[in-house]
Amino acid sequence: MKRTHQDPGFIDLAGNKSGEAATYAIPADWRRQGLPAGRIGLLALSELSGSMQDLRAAAAAGHEGAQLAIAVFRHQLLREIGAMAASLGGVDVLAFTGGIGEHDDALRQEVVSALSWLSPFEVMVIAADEEQVIARACRQSAAIRGGPPRSP
Fold first, then answer.
1. How many domains, the chain?
2. What is the pTM of this model?
3. CB of 122 within 8 A of CB of 92?
């Protein structure tokens, strides 16, 4: 079966990240054909890996599943950015963060090139520091409750 991101019957599935721009798609009939539970997103599309770095290397070597996963990821990212741009009336800043956003230079270049129809906008790469965000939230929560919990 030739798989493309334009096949009818695609369904959106949440990947392993939060946010609508981090969703991926697989054809609905793949699930009926016994795609193992838990294999979603880039891993399911590529049938190789959930790592964009691994997929880039495999795609360069001609792996069709890796090429498909990257194309679908890029397509859905562009779709979400386009929808947001329409909703907001334009884009001032496009911020890339997280593992793929921070480290996939090729994806950033492809996205910026595909969005050349938009008015000029700034492109930023922001380092994700999830541990610091969690620690800050814990400190704020503890402060609201009057301090850290006491040991029994």
1. 1
2. 0.67
3. yes
Q: Residue written as tokens 């798989």? A: 3
CA nearest neighbour of 116 among 100, 98, 94, 88: 94
pLDDT tens digits, 87-113: 999 999 999 998 899 999 999 999 999
Q: Which two tokens stand for residue 127?
A: 């380092």
Q: CATH code at 20?
A: 3.30.420.40
Q: At what angle do helices 64-88 and 105-114 cross, to 10 degrees?
A: 50
In a domain, 75, yes or no: yes
As a whole number of angstroms, the distance between CA 60 and CA 83 comes to 30
Query: Which token pair is 28?
Result: 């609905």
Model confidence pLDDT, tens digit, residues 6-25: 443 343 333 434 444 434 44
For 112, the domain range is 10-144
